[in-house]
Specification:
7% strand
Length: 153
Amino acid sequence: MFPDDFVPILERDATSRNRSICSSTREPRTLRNALGGALDAKGVDSAVALYRELRTRYYGTAAYDLSESALLGVANDASRANKTPAALALLKLNLGFYEKSAGTYSAMANISLAGNDTASAIAALKKAIELQPNNPQAQGLLTRLTTKPPQTR
């Protein structure tokens, strides 16, 4: 499953984080590009499998940015490309590794809301606020979603 044309960079400076080099072109490749390419070519299951393989193989080596925010960017890209189910699947994957990620729950809320799933957005916001009670953006959005508009005649 691991792409043969990826060679991780094990010695890094601050500007090269989250990159590997394509062995054929010698161009930098990011985790975001690798997962986005897998998502586009073979779907979300392929992207999930690639992330799991990269994480197993390279976690702790700095070859790829496998931090909490890494999948958020890929999920946001998928959402912007109108791939809401894929974006939500990537966020659920992120929660498998970072179950206390208020940011991931907030992203799930926003993507659910963009997909017109208000109930899931509200549930995700409640979890985000539970994990991070001082999150004014999540609190404000939850209030807007749960407050009934005034009745007009």
